[in-house]
């Protein structure tokens, strides 16, 4: 049984769902930070810290998907 045979793992999805909802809330915060950081970096391109802040915000936005994938990979078929 290979990795491609076992793509659907509903138990891992259900266990990870509450954590993904929390990550979704953090991703909304990340989206707001990203928008503010993008606006500040447009106004003052010399602010290098805004680029790092924007990268952190993008990671926060991607977090719910990463959390669900992590939980589904932990549960065997």
TrEMBL record:
InterPro entries: TAXIMIN_1/2. The chain crosses the membrane at residues 12-40. Keywords: Membrane, Transmembrane, Transmembrane helix. It comes from the Eukaryota. This is Signaling peptide TAXIMIN 2. It comes from Apostasia shenzhenica.
């Amino acid at each position: 049984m290979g990795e491609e045979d076992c793509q659907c793992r509903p138990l891992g999805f259900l266990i990870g769902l509450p954590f993904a909802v929390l990550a979704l809330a953090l991703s909304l915060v990340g989206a707001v930070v990203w928008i503010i950081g993008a606006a500040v970096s447009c106004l003052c391109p010399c602010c290098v810290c805004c680029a790092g802040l924007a990268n952190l915000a993008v990671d926060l936005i991607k977090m719910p998907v990463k959390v669900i994938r992590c939980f589904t990979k932990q549960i065997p078929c």
